[in-house]
Amino acid sequence: MASSKGDLAGRVRVDDGPDGLALIVDETVASLSSKETNRSALVWDALALPVLATTERPSVLILGLGGGTAARALRRLRPEAQIVGVELDAEVIRLAKKHFDLDALKVEVIHQDALEFLRKDRRQFDLILDDVFVGYARSIHKPRWLPRPGFRLAKRRLKEGGVLVSNALAEAKYLQRGMQELFPGLLRLRVPDFENQILVAGQLAALEILEQASSKQLNGIKVERPGSVGTLLPRSITDSRWLRLARLAVSLTAAALCRTRFRRSETIHRCCGGESTWTCHGNPTGIP
Ligand SMILES: C[S@@+](CC[C@H](N)C(=O)[O-])C[C@H]1O[C@@H](n2cnc3c(N)ncnc32)[C@H](O)[C@@H]1O
């Protein structure tokens, strides 16, 4: 059963659950320090996988560092990587250092808005991972500056032949189209049991390396070539306040229903990694 660390209750907290230590941001699992060593791939592994298409000692920028799960996966694949992580929330950084051993990952941690970083920092990277999410529980979404102008700014921060990766949920089609406008090639990575789409954009040669990854490296991750995206309603419409409110209402109702049925309720969440079903950790009322 999951347990919440006492002093950490709030919009950002750490839960010690059956899958390992979880960093919960706004009722969503942002980061996970998995207990299993021989587990199949998680969505954070798919985010890190495109580093295989770069050099042995790549420079990597992570937008939305969180608890550093993707950074840890990157380190496993490329121990010599130079990693810069940008995170908006000071409390997330504090908990990542305290509970997720962030310092041991040797990441240059930058406490800043990712958009501001993209506008102001002049460094260039072999790989940029966008794992920025905002919003509450099932209404979690990408910030308004993605795909535009975020991806265009990110492309400027990529070295020649560099790769851009984005973790997408509901807005996957918008992000895909935004990336296809800027890069010659695009791949989609899928992880069993996660609804996330990991979009990978870059030069065709780099993406071919990824397509040739061994089944051991893939560890269950599927590599797909998506077609081009058809006509889309503007994001301003699909993203409207009313739609957000409706999603939030569904979240709260589902949480309330779960609370009625289950004794413990604080870990009712949807994973930023996009678990497709509601997760209620706890025993149904009346069952010991
Ligand atoms: C899904 S979590 C990131 C998980 C992380 N990549 C990992 O591997 O553990 C999303 C993160 O984006 C951060 N975030 C949201 N808006 C941001 C912004 N404008 N700039 C930087 N980080 C932001 C949130 O605070 C949250 O920690």
UniProtKB/TrEMBL annotation:
<feature type="active site" description="Proton acceptor">
    <location>
        <position position="131"/>
    </location>
</feature>
<dbReference type="InterPro" id="IPR030374">
    <property type="entry name" value="PABS"/>
</dbReference>
<dbReference type="GO" id="GO:0016740">
    <property type="term" value="F:transferase activity"/>
</dbReference>
<keyword id="KW-0620">Polyamine biosynthesis</keyword>
<dbReference type="GO" id="GO:0006596">
    <property type="term" value="P:polyamine biosynthetic process"/>
</dbReference>
<dbReference type="Pfam" id="PF01564">
    <property type="entry name" value="Spermine_synth"/>
</dbReference>
<keyword id="KW-0808">Transferase</keyword>
<feature type="domain" description="PABS">
    <location>
        <begin position="1"/>
        <end position="216"/>
    </location>
</feature>
<protein>
    <recommendedName>
        <fullName>PABS domain-containing protein</fullName>
    </recommendedName>
</protein>
<dbReference type="InterPro" id="IPR029063">
    <property type="entry name" value="SAM-dependent_MTases_sf"/>
</dbReference>
<comment type="similarity">
    <text>Belongs to the spermidine/spermine synthase family.</text>
</comment>
